[in-house]
Design goal:
mainly alpha; 265 residues
Length: 265
């Protein structure tokens, strides 16, 4: 996803087609999740070996029904830190509507600034702050008018998930791009580059993207049952499974050692 799509499009947006730019945006969403979630899992696993239990850090964030729900699922340790050390000290939701919206914006702007002193990180945080405030405003407006919550139907949940995912992907463009101009160039290609030749799309890339998204919807119970079943295998079979997994990783991974994205932060 990174070497065959994201890195190439971000390096030279103007040379790539609209479908390639759109695929790169989706690919980065999966890349940063897989990268950071795996980094967290490695830290949790190593800590367990030494007798420490770290909290879970990700919970299928791309199945979120809203931006508020997304931040309950994405980088949960950072979300709790922002809540406890920024949002609540600023006043939280105790100062009325306008102050609550201000506190949400300031918290997310500072959360963006934490990633780096750059306008693109500020814009990334600001977008999330704006969406969090807008969601809260809608909920409070409906409550003030005495309207009942929207019905919990499958199609409404699907629309919420689809909309939330695309809002998150839109903000990721500014997070990943090398500059604001590069971010706008990538977004511009999504809308204007559909007549350009497409060379980066491949079955392997589409499969990787599909699997990355589909994995978000695997029930937690199925994962736990799989872990229990694996632990009950004989050591020889466990070794075979792990060896096959490492071969697949080596075959599909980039050349050399790929540093974790969040090492730069």
């Amino acid at each position: 996803l990174a070497s065959h799509s994201v890195d190439r499009v971000c390096a030279s947006p103007g040379l790539h087609s609209g479908p390639e730019a759109l695929l790169a945006i989706y690919a980065y969403a999966i890349q940063i999740y897989a990268d950071f979630s795996a980094y967290s899992d490695i830290a949790i696993g190593v800590a367990l070996l030494m007798g420490f239990k770290f909290p879970e850090n990700f919970n299928a964030p791309y199945t979120a029904l809203s931006i508020t729900d997304f931040w309950r699922r994405w980088h949960m340790s950072l979300s709790r830190w922002l809540r406890d050390y920024l949002y609540i000290p600023l006043g939280g939701s105790k100062g009325g509507r306008l102050l609550t919206y201000r506190n949400l914006m300031l918290t997310m702007l500072l959360g963006g600034l934490w990633h780096g002193a750059a306008w693109r990180f500020m814009l990334w945080g600001g977008l999330h702050g704006l969406w969090l405030a807008a969601e809260r405003a809608v909920v409070e407006s409906r409550r003030a008018r005495g309207l009942a919550p929207l019905p919990d139907t499958w199609w409404l949940r699907a629309l919420k998930r689809l909309g939330t995912f695309h809002l998150v992907c839109f903000a990721w463009v500014f997070f990943r791009a090398d500059s604001l101009n590069a971010a706008w160039a990538i977004l511009g290609r999504v809308f204007t580059g559909w007549g350009t030749a497409t060379t980066l799309l491949s079955p392997a890339l589409l499969i990787a993207l599909t699997v990355g998204l589909a994995a978000q919807y695997v029930p937690r119970g199925a994962v736990n049952r799989g872990l229990v079943g694996f632990s009950r295998l004989r050591p020889a079979f466990q070794g075979l499974v792990l060896a096959f997994t490492l071969m697949v990783i080596d075959a599909l991974g980039p050349e050399g050692v790929a540093a974790f994205i969040y090492f730069q932060f």
